[in-house]
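Each field is set out as follows.
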Amino acid sequence: MKLTETGVRGLPSPKDVPQAYYWDTVVKGLGVVVGKSGAKTFVVYARLAGERGKRVKHKIGIFGQPRDDKHAWSVELAREEAKKVIGTLATGVNPNETLTPEGRPVGPTLREAVETHLAKMRKKNRSERSTGTFTHETNKYLADWLDRPISELTGAKLVELHQQIKDRAAKRIGTNPANDKGAPLANRVIAHVSAAWRSLNKKLEGKLGSWNPASAVDKDTIKPKRERIMDEDLPDYAARVATMRSPIKRDGLMFALFTGLRNEDVRTMRFENVEWDDQTLHLPNPKGGEGAAFTIPLSATPMAILQRRQRDNAKDLARTDEGWCFPGIDLEDKVGPIADLRQSTTSRRNDGKRRSDGRFPVEDVHSLRRTWESIANDEGISELDQHVLSNHSFGSHNVNATYISQHIDHLATCAEKIDAGITRRINGTPTKKRKTRRGPMRLVA
């Protein structure tokens, strides 16, 4: 029968037997035991994993009686608790035998799942950025859950967490509606939970069951950003970069524009990976980890920027750069890769306090990568050459390892052609317009 408040309340006391059992059709394994005294007790009767089909009965609570949180036991609360108990049984833990001091069943915790997945990421040589993001976000947004049994992290709880992260992001002072990071962040945290759950379940040989609670979350659809700096706006962009206070940030942003490299790759570059005579740059740990390491030729402008940084870093930073091409000083007063190539813009609120209004001269450094790709395309550079130069995936294959070693001179020619195209646009030199039968091209979603 489907248990309801009215139905449970009206269950009669047994006459011919000591107890009568009524099983719920919504949550399999949840039932109500009615004794001769009329007391109605919620119980779970389910299989204990790893015990060759052994089934365990576990008392949840008495209908209508107060719980520890002062709420009376109801059908809905019993269903929620039953799912947790069934999840615990699925891990091979008998809640009747092993309890915390508070009376809560123990079992593998979310922290164990997180550590299991982190070890898997490192074994597969995932980049420091990937492992760092995973560690930071799980510690920050799942702190209240890390030391609790993973069986308690139900689909309903994850749906609630997903919404909480978005709501928190929306309330932050200075949030830019045009650059909302709440939904992508919430999606990412749920993906972390899902990956951690899968890794732990594999380690436990499927004892967590077949249902991943993260599957209950309908993640937001994120529309890919396609912003770029238009050709006619590049002179203004270069002028704005020139007004930035930090020469290190100025050079970092222009380097990103002229190479099309990812923000993280530019920020973490080291001089030891620059071959000055060959004019090449090696990136040992890009997106995709060490297995995706690659080397690209550098055109004249990026080489000039690196030579300037090698010469001026100590003066501009007022200390040694420790080998970083674009160095910065962290909160512990230590030199490392610069934290942000952009410059913060602030304004004063009504209460007199300052608030962040965004980033200057671009809100998203990745827009420089899209600008580079657009100019490369306009200059006639093939899609394959573009993807190799910028370490972008090409179809389902990573072409860098074999392609670059065979065609470095050809790629160097492509890089110089793109360099010249960007320079012309910054200087405001008109470019040849292609003949077309159609009107101006519009950006479509």
Observations:
- DSSP finds 14 helices and eleven strands in the chain.
- Confidence is low (pLDDT under 50) at residues 173-179, 394-402, 434-445.
- The chain has three domains: 5-90, 110-216, 231-426.
